[in-house]
Prior knowledge:
heterodimer, A: alpha+beta, 14 strands, globular, B: 787 residues, alpha+beta, 7-stranded mixed β-sheet, 5-stranded mixed β-sheet, 28 strands
Amino acid sequence: MYPPKFDYLRADSAANALELLAANPDAKVMAGGHSLIPAMNLRLADPGTIIDIGRVADFKDFSANGGIVGIGSGITHAMIAASSDVPAALSEAAGLIGDPQVRNRGTIGGNIAHADPASDLPTVLVALGAAISTVSSSGSRMIQAGDFFVDLFETALMDGELVAEITMDQDGANTGSAYAKLSNPASRYAMVGAAARVTVEGGVFTAVSVAVGGLTPKAQAAPSVNAALVGKAATADNIAAAAAAVQNDLGDDVMGDIHASADYRRQMATVFVKRALTKATERAG
Amino acid sequence: MGNYVGKSMKRVEDPRFIQGQGKYVANLKIYGMTHAAIKRSPYPHAKINSINTAAAEALEGVIAVFTGKDLVEGGVNPIPCGFTPPDIKLPPHHALAIDRVRHVGDGVAVVIAETAYIAHDALDLIEVDYEPLPAVVDAKAAAQAGAPQVHDEVPNNVSFTWAIGDEAAVNAALAAADHVVELDLINQRLIPNAMEPRAAVAQWDSAMEQMTVWTSSQNPHTIRLLLSAFTLGIPEHKLRVISPDVGGGFGSKIFHYAEEVIVPWAARKIGRPVKWVATRSESHSTDAHGRDHVTHCKLGMSKDGIFQALHIENYANMGAYLSLFAPMIPTALYHTLMAGLYKTPVIYGVTYGTMTNTTPVDAYRGAGRPEASYVLERLIDIASRDLNMDPIELRRKNFIQPDEFPYQTPVALLYDSGNYDAVFDKAVEMADYSAMRAEQATARADGRLVGVGVSGCIEASGAGPSAVVVSLGAAIGLYESGAIRVHPTGKVTVLTGAHSHGQGHETSLAQIVGDELGIPVSDIEVIHGDTERLPYGVGTYASRSMAVGGGALVMSAQKIRDKITRIAAHQLEAAVEDMVYDRATGTVHVKGAPDKSKAFGEIAFAVTLANNLPAGMEPALEETSYFDPPNFTFPNSAHIAKVEVDKDSGEVTLLDYVAVDDVGNIINPLLVEGQIVGGVAQGVGQALWEHGAYDANGQLLSGTFMDYAMPRADGFPNIRVGRTVTPSPSNPLGVKGAGEMGTIAGTVTVVNAVMDALAPLGVRHLDMPLTAEKIKAAIAAANGGGN
Lengths: 285, 787
């Protein structure tokens, strides 16, 4: 594989990364390189300059305090998959990404900044209500996951802005989360991905948050499912009925390809939301 | 039993492979070496109005750019086809297209540059003015009136029609049959995907006028012959072809490819070595694909399930050009296997080989035989359901019996040996078949879709008797060479015309020679893959290396033993007929006097001294033999799979897989098990996942691993392997081919299992790959369109 010629710059700190980015506004930022490099090898991307932030220690912090987990943008999928501090849905999804080599190189920050609609993590972060902190030369800000993903390969990040950290609530008492996906048999990307977090108290759902991805241009919250389930008894029938409500949240832009048509993916949204809810409910117990 | 044959020895080649020390073509570096990249058509079918290479040539670091016209003017001839049934229409196959491109990936120009990166940059600077033409993709649609024409030389896109059997007799028997199962099926196109992409390096020595070509091939001698006698015209004695370590082939590296022509031609033209290594995307669009049949078939039987006649009408997609052995696959390697394990008295089959705007199709692991087994074993599976009979019982009723061998089938082949009931007995026992059926009944009662699939397959491997393959249309005989060179210290070099690209010949052939001569395998080095070091060789495909290549080595070992025995008799002053060669110890002694003996190494050195040899004996211990087997070998199998289909999603889970194969005597059980397990995985890949897909306009949709689904370990339970042994009388070792049966049986076994799971819904047949969506749609249709 032979990418077009490019310049390579390596940042040694977050501040240095922002400086390099300011000096090279057309550069592409790379962490693990597992989305960018294949695109360059196929000559679908020709960034001219790459700024490698893969070794920036500032982005590799990991914390779990007071029920909140903070994951630096440079943390790899393998580390997340192995963590018992992060919500179960997140470690589960991270463990389903690619293969061990990909998981050892790929990072959560790179993944979400790329905003591939078939990616697993955006769906999970939307369901978990994660917050994404960013840094730029004008300071830092926090974006809710639901606002971060804008469209196909498009995020709320502005030019010169980098993902610094992702924070979210841990799975607390009586709470469980899960991720279920229908994988593309070739790439193993999600053709349909469903993430759910539920709280069950006294046999009743008191909080439900579901999101789907893979079939829509961006990770999509499923408020209809949440509404259909909160206040209901945690039973298989209730889960099945509520899962079907995801159809109201899919919009008109369901995608299809040679592996699965849009119609089939639409049907499977219900099936995989049900699976995610069922597993999350078991974990809540 | 010898010291080695029959033992599971670890592969001697593995330490270098697992430590990254293998020497593949891509590893080769030669002083002054340049790099080639090929400009390829993005169109499935287009007229080339012009090619402008000026900007590419002007790029710094570009040495030359050549087009198809340059090659023809430079004396390059079209790539030949090596299997030509009567009346075949042979369209020219140029290494680079000249005035028309005929598939996505068809080469139009080559850039030679100082680095591979520059060569690829230059590709973007070549301007080709294409005029798109309508394209045809489907094997059967290509032959219909009004279809776009791929070659002027091939009217209606039908390159050849090949038939076997008495059609009138078959039709009469079908008309008289109590029950006829009729089926339309598609055996979809596959992309082989050897782990190592194809590669070629060439170096021209102008002083000696000698060309050396390194190529990732399964048969370097064949490539040398074709380069010499057909494409480049370099005299064979001035041409050396080396296939060093090769990372898998699965058939796709048998053929003579355009790049093997372009690279040496360019190396000579520019006077510097040239290297080309395929990118994975190039592999997808230019390695010969496999399968791609559209078939209509009928099996007639009596009401109690005795097969009476079989009728096959088949359209085989040849792609845009006829690859080296392409016409052989859906003809001589396909229809001749339609008897399967059964005594069907009359069989007729016809194949139309059609040209389309797709990548050429040729042999891919199994090559015609998986397609044949798929037809037959699908028909039988449906028959068992129609007759409400257990699929194993129905098969057993029709088996050729052990006392009926050699068995002449109605489709040309003479089966060598077999005991099919024994193979099935073993599979039934290993699978605990009745328990499997009981579990299935319980699952069905619970509303779950659990299926058990069965197949009984056969293949003709170890090609072949040259007289037979040549009479069927092959351009060369399929014997094999094997030479043994004994060095003065008693160490041995084995030279084989077979080629190892994953099979482990360096181990298994050493085991054979170690036992034949009674010497340690650590004293034996197996050399393959270099036309300069070996006698003429045919190569490795069609599961032939042990049966044919091993046979040649047994012959050479016999000659070595005979000579050693004569020398020992001379030195011990005994009669030759009183000598005993002990193959356990590698010593020769006088009968009844074991202390009067000579060791292998002693004789080896004595030969070199040449001061005490029988009068007139030549002082050398080196023998070469060529083995041309009297018949193919016929390995056979009984495979049983258990699957569950998820009713909600249509996803298939493979729960259990039992593979019992009779591959005759076994040299190395570990290697055979590896072949079977890997083969099954490849076969199941076709059943469930793999598809070389084109859209209706001829664009390759599965052009990368993002869209071409390979089988992976997490899709499989532990594959349980068993065996029965019925030695083959066709070669001195009694072995049968082991390399392809897993693939042949794996596909249809799993499809039968999934169809069994769906049987309660009335689903009769679905075409592969059995994607979740396809299955879900069938479930929904069976439930009246609902979910």
